[in-house]
């Protein structure tokens, strides 16, 4: 399904959900409609293990230049009626919930950036499993220069690169290029151009195709719990997941494929970015 009149173009192939931010006229700035459409797209595949990967990219010259300042101004204009702060809070918190849902998606999430990757765009990067940035990407947190805090983004940036690095990036409203972002750990790979970005993306998806979808989802959940559960709780959870997997369809198929010296059934699927 897709639609050029929507703020997000959605293309669901058998194994890959491709989401393209579709407000190129304003640098793919995020508004409530875009946040809602992204959340709906994530929800539509949450329990679908046929969907193995979610790929997010941007149309036009920029990946995403942050929040929609015009929409924020309209929200502020309602302050005279006493609901301005509530409108701002709704917009900001909805975006934070999007980051939570992207971060916890059971599928492998891949973000592909180019041009401006600012504010909300950087949040999508930091909530992804892996980001490939074109060399022309400029990543940053400009919020303090606008007189606002990076309220929903901050915890995801800290999780991604650590508190010390996040402090200088956020407090000084710095922008970094793709190579500097790679050194910081904001992104995991750098591509020369569109063609290289597609090549690297398809290479990642080919690796993912060799991994069992349910095992991928459980592994991701285990990793995300690592900083929130005690070590005994985490190991107990891991033991339960392991036992369930060994006795389940994927574990049995993986064992048979190994002993029969063949590829498991889930590895036969072709996945690629189009």
UniProtKB/TrEMBL annotation:
InterPro entries: ClpP/crotonase-like_dom_sf, Enoyl-CoA_hydra/iso, Enoyl-CoA_hydra_C, Enoyl-CoA_Hydratase/Isomerase. It holds the Pfam family ECH_1. Gene3D superfamilies: 2-enoyl-CoA Hydratase, Chain A, domain 1, Lyase 2-enoyl-coa Hydratase, Chain A, domain 2. One of its GO terms (molecular function) is catalytic activity. CDD domains: crotonase-like. Residues 253-274 are annotated as: Disordered. It comes from the Bacteria. One of its GO terms (biological process) is isoprenoid catabolic process. Belongs to the enoyl-CoA hydratase/isomerase family. This is Isohexenylglutaconyl-CoA hydratase.
């Amino acid at each position: 399904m897709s639609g050029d009149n929507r703020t997000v173009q959605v293309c669901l192939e058998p194994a890959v959900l491709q989401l393209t931010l579709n407000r190129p006229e304003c640098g793919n700035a995020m508004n409530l409609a875009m946040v809602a459409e992204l959340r709906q797209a994530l929800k539509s595949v949450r329990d679908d293990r046929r969907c193995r990967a979610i790929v997010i990219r941007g149309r036009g010259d920029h990946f995403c230049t942050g929040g929609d300042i015009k929409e924020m101004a309209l929200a502020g204009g309602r302050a005279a009626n006493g609901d301005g702060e509530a409108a701002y809070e709704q917009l900001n918190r909805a975006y934070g919930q999007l980051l939570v849902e992207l971060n916890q998606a059971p599928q492998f999430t891949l973000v592909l950036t180019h041009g401006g990757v600012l504010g909300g765009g950087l949040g999508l990067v930091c909530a992804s499993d892996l980001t490939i940035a074109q060399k022309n990407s400029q990543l940053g947190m400009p919020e303090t220069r606008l007189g606002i805090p990076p309220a929903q983004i901050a915890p995801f940036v800290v999780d991604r690169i650590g508190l010390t690095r996040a402090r200088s990036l956020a407090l000084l409203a710095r922008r970094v290029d793709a190579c500097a972002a790679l050194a910081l750990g904001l992104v995991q790979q750098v591509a020369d151009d569109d063609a290289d970005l597609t090549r690297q993306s398809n290479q990642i998806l080919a690796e993912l195709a060799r991994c069992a979808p349910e095992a991928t989802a459980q592994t991701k959940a285990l990793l995300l719990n690592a900083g929130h559960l005690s070590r005994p709780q985490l190991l107990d959870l891991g033991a339960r997941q392991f036992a369930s997997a060994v006795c389940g369809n994927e574990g049995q198929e993986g064992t048979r494929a190994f002993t029969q010296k063949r590829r498991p059934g889930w590895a036969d699927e072709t996945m690629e970015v189009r």
